[in-house]
Specification:
This protein is mostly helical. Helices cover about 55% and strands about 5% of the residues. α2 links the parallel β1 and β2.
Length: about 80
C-alpha cells in the first residue's frame, strides 16, 4: 500500500489546522486556571478569615502576570478533581 500524494499546500493546511486546535485548547486551559481556590483556611471554608483576604491575595498574581484571576466559588471542586 502506497501513500496517496498530496500537494504541499494541503499538508501545510493540516499543520495550520492543528495549530488552531492547539490555540483553542490553550485558551480554554487559561480560563480554567484563572480560577483560584481561596478559602483562607486549610479546608477552604473561609471560616474565621479576614473578609478581604481573597481579594488581597488575588492582587499579587494579577500584578505580576497581568492576568485577571478570580476566586473559585466552589472551593472543594478543584480539590476533588486533583485527588
Amino acid at each position: 500500500m502506497g501513500a496517496t500524494p498530496i500537494r504541499l499546500g494541503q499538508e501545510f493546511s493540516g499543520y495550520a489546522q492543528q495549530v488552531g486546535y492547539a490555540k483553542e485548547r490553550a485558551q480554554k486551559s487559561v480560563e480554567v486556571l484563572r480560577e483560584i481556590a481561596l478559602g483562607g483556611t486549610a479546608v477552604g471554608t473561609g471560616l474565621n478569615r479576614h473578609i478581604d483576604l481573597p481579594k488581597k491575595m488575588l492582587q499579587h498574581p494579577e500584578q505580576r502576570t497581568a492576568i485577571a484571576f478570580t476566586r473559585r466559588k466552589i472551593i472543594s471542586k478543584r480539590r476533588a478533581e486533583a485527588g
